[in-house]
Specification:
CATH class of the largest domain: Mainly Alpha
Number of helices: 8
Keywords: Sigma factor, Transcription, Transcription regulation
GO molecular function: DNA binding; sigma factor activity
Number of strands: 0
CATH architecture of the largest domain: Orthogonal Bundle
Structural class: mainly alpha
Organism: Streptomyces mutabilis
Protein name: RNA polymerase sigma70
Pfam family, one: Sigma70_r2
Low-confidence stretches: 1-5, 181-196
Largest sheet: none
Length: about 200
C-alpha cells in the first residue's frame, strides 16, 4: 500500500509547489514528463515543430493552472497525458480543417477519421509506455520478435502460464486504446476525458 501512496503524494506535493509558483517544481515536472508529452504530441501531429509547440503549451497550462489537476481523479502523469492529447487533437483538427478549407481536397469524414486514428495511436503508445515492465517485455517479444507464448516464457524465464497471463493482460490494456475516444468510456482516464 505504501508504494501506491508514494506517486499520489508526489503528485499532490508537486501540485502544491506549482500553486505556490515554485519555478524549480516546473523544471522537475518538465524533466519527468517532457519526453512523454513531446512523444504523444508527435504521435498525433506527425510534426516535430508542432509537437514542440504542444509541449510548451502543456507546461505553460500546468504552470498557469495547477489547480486544474485533481489528484482524486488519477495520477498527474495521466492528467498531463490527457491534456497533451486534447491540445494535440485540437491542433490537428484546426490545421487539417484549414487545409480542407484552403485546398478543398478531402472531406470532413476523412478529417475525423484521421483524427481518430491519430488519437488511438497516441493512446496505444501511452498505454505501452505506462504498463508494467513485465507486461511490456512479453508484448515486445511476441510482437517485435515474433515469439509465441512458449518462446516468450523461455526468453523471460517464467512459466508458460505466466507468459500467457502477461500477454493477455498486455493485450487487454492495449485494447482500451480504441475505447478512449470519449469521456466515461472504458480506458479513458476518469474525469479527464479522452478526446477533445
Amino acid at each position: 500500500m505504501a508504494k501506491r501512496d508514494v506517486p499520489q503524494r508526489w503528485d499532490r506535493k508537486m501540485q502544491q509547489r506549482l500553486a505556490r509558483g515554485e519555478a524549480a517544481a516546473l523544471g522537475e515536472l518538465y524533466d519527468r514528463f517532457a519526453s512523454l508529452v513531446h512523444g504523444l504530441a508527435h504521435r498525433v501531429l506527425d510534426d516535430e515543430r508542432a509537437a514542440d509547440h504542444i509541449t510548451r503549451d502543456v507546461f505553460a497550462h500546468v504552470w498557469e493552472h495547477p489547480d486544474a489537476y485533481d489528484p482524486r481523479q488519477g495520477p498527474l502523469r495521466t492528467w498531463i497525458a490527457a491534456l497533451t492529447h486534447r491540445l494535440a487533437v485540437q491542433r490537428l483538427r484546426t490545421t487539417e480543417t484549414a487545409a480542407l478549407a484552403r485546398d478543398g481536397s478531402g472531406t470532413v469524414e476523412e478529417l475525423e477519421s484521421k483524427v481518430r486514428r491519430a488519437a488511438v495511436a497516441a493512446r496505444a503508445d501511452y498505454i505501452v509506455q505506462s504498463m508494467p515492465a513485465p507486461l511490456r517485455a512479453a508484448l515486445e517479444l511476441a510482437y517485435f520478435q515474433r515469439r509465441d507464448y512458449r518462446q516468450t516464457a523461455a526468453d523471460l524465464g517464467v512459466t508458460e502460464d505466466e507468459a500467457r497471463r502477461r500477454l493477455r493482460l498486455g493485450l487487454q490494456l492495449l485494447s482500451t486504446a480504441r475505447d478512449a475516444g470519449a469521456p466515461g468510456t472504458p480506458g479513458a482516464p476518469p474525469g479527464y476525458g479522452g478526446a477533445a
